[in-house]
Amino acid sequence: MRRVLIFSLLLILFFAVFSPVWAQDWQGKSGIGIRGPFICPLFVGKDFPGNSGKEPFMMGWDGQFYLRYGLTSHWVSDLAVGLATSYDDSTATSSQSFSLNKKDNAAYTLHGLLASLTFNYYFWSEKKMQPYVILGMGVDGWSVKSRTNNEISHITDFSGKAGAGINYWLKENFTIDLQARLTYALANISNDVSSGLVNPNGWGEWKTRPFRGYLEPSIGLTYYLGGDKDTDKDGVSDKKDQCPDTPSGCLVDKAGCPLDSDGDGVCDGNDKCPDTPAGCLVDALGCPMDSDQDGVFDGIDKCPNTKRGCLVDAKGCPLDADGDGVCDGIDECADTPKGAKVDVKGCPMDTDGDGVFDGIDRCPSTPKGTEVDANGCPKNVKAPVQKITLNIKYATNSYEPDPASKKVLDDLSETMKAYTGVKLDIHGFTDDVGDAKHNQTLSEKRAGAVMEYLIQKGVDANRMSAVGHGEDPQYFIGDNKTAEGRQMNRRVEINSTEFEVK
Known about the structure:
alpha+beta, CATH 3.30.1330.60, 4-stranded mixed β-sheet, 12 strands
């Protein structure tokens, strides 16, 4: 019998190794299997006299071959036939010890031909590991052979069966399970046991029998021949599968649709990063991408092109504590004053070396060694003002500045050369004496003469503009009927784009 068990085991393993698919749905599946290897006779009759011990038959060998069919997704039927053998132990001094005995101390050999029909209910039918319970019935044919005179007797019983086990799917078409099944004889169908076989009273009554039931602890191997088609091999048959094109390896729900716990578009089972935060872009393995490597994943990162090394906020955007345009983490001068221009390292620049940083320095070209104020401008140079009005004492039809005005323009030129960001708008005006066209030309020449004088003093022409307004009444500030009023109207005004507020 052991050779039969070994051959059957090798046959089942062969089918398992070369089985190409995987499934776990029981319904409609048919299979063949083997089970073994132990049988433990139990429940000695109360009036059984025994020999030198209480239990004549010890734990023996048991092997079964069975056919299986899946009735539903939980219920499975098994039709089995098995062979069992055991020996008594004439030296026993206690009841069943659950240990294998040898025939050396035996007076009798017990053989069994065991047939059964059982129904197994599997829990967690969608899982690979499935606990189950067993209910069923069987017909047990026993033969007892005397080892002294070779006399053989036969007993046939009808029995009930119950048990439990754990099944595990190794492959779609192959399972292994651990099982413990108890059989108890309910009725004796026939027996020809003579009085005195094994005990003086025979086996005619339950109370005189050497055993009435038996326990079968076993390991089962089952190969499944078919079942409902499962095209995408997700464990859900096509007729139930609502997602018949599930990618290989995906875990699926009862409807056969891929599970995606983190909602990243890569199914559980294939997803190497199953806890990806919502909104992240992922690669083919389901792992979040971080293109700029700032620690905030693409899809969540509001600034996906952050420069390498920058510190970022929760949105992935660079931090810049001092607001100098160089992000924290790269900025080597993190406390730069507001408004200062910086180099690529984030450190303030001071082109003229006067101690006032570019961007803050209103006079960025101060000569080396010049004493400057807080604005970076020479202390001996006047600061620009919003407007300068030159009431030049022009000779008739003249447009040249007078000496007093030139003194003012000399100071202004020094201011302009120091305050390089300042620009000037120069406006020329006349009174209403004379021809309007002539006065327009005269006002333009007066404004132009002031601009030309400043150019001669070293002020860049691109920083100035000159325009004449002639005798436009809207610009009169004095009464043209009086000499004093006309003198007020004959003027040049210089407006500065940058000035000190007094």
